[in-house]
Amino acid sequence: MSAAERPLGVLIVDDEPLARARLARQLQSIDGCQLLGEAADGESALQQLDSLDPDLLLLDIEMPGENGLQLATQITNRPNPPAIIFCTAHDEFALPAFAVAPSGYLLKPVNVEQLAQAIAQARRLSKPQLLQTESNSPTASSGRRQIKAVSRRGVQLIDVDDIRCFIAEDKYVIAHHSGGETVLDESLKELEAEFGERFVRVHRSAIVAREYITALVRNGSGRHYIHLRGVTAAPEVSRRLLSRVKSLLQQVETV
Questions:
Q1: What are phi and psi of 102, to 5 degrees?
Q2: Final residue in a domain of this structure, among 90, 119, 135
């Protein structure tokens, strides 16, 4: 069975029996998921993590003893950790949860549509998928495959390969992709350092994906702008970087 066909093994971790039972019932209606077990606290969760080797944890945050954030920190520091979707009754934990790098953040009472959507996102980062990607891709280690953003709607995962450009605006950086625009809590400098092989600096406030560049256009006032396939955003090219961008376009045209 391929990684795409393999059921996603799920472990539910919550100190409330009714909450565990609700999630277990909802999982039954979501294709491609297999409930491996349940745990009521962090200690039991770690034991079952070793014995069951789940691909995904549905994890509560406020529990007796070690809370979900502390448990998630331990788990993500392990080799080949499972994906984590936090299921909590409190929205104030979103940013701390994001720091632990969850695959999703759902508020109780969780409905089955929200859970299915979060699992579909988490499936992209599950162990079977990561193992398949790593074995098939010689560049799998060069930066993240997805970027996570936290908003009032929860955690959003954006494929780096789908991002056309990053543009800095005020205190934030906006990623422009086929699904629209997403505000990131990361600096342009950090993104350029990580994804410098895929993106090129065209302005002090913009880096663009090389593969999506379609044209360099000059307007009536003499300013130059980059056109990108699939988005309306057209970052301006600074005079200092104009020659570099022109050289890049010539290289693309000769390939």
A1: -75, 165
A2: 135
